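Bumping with the actual sequence this time:
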Amino acid sequence: MLNHIADFVVHFDESLAHEQIERLEDSVRNHTCVVSASSHAKTPHLMHIAYDPKCTHSRGILDVVKGHGLHAAKVC
């Protein structure tokens, strides 16, 4: 059995405190189809998200990020 995982990076314009980024990551991870969501201290405007493409699409996950009032875009 093959498991298919897709991923993409989200860029958001706003500067967030470490705690805000953690809450955002937690919120994205709570999406049923998300496998992981993480950002790095050196690139706080980027978040790498892995998900099951049979369950959702990147647009739906991006909507979760935007739902936090952020100006966000998929970059790859």
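The tokens above came from a reply further down the thread. The chain has a mean pLDDT of 92.
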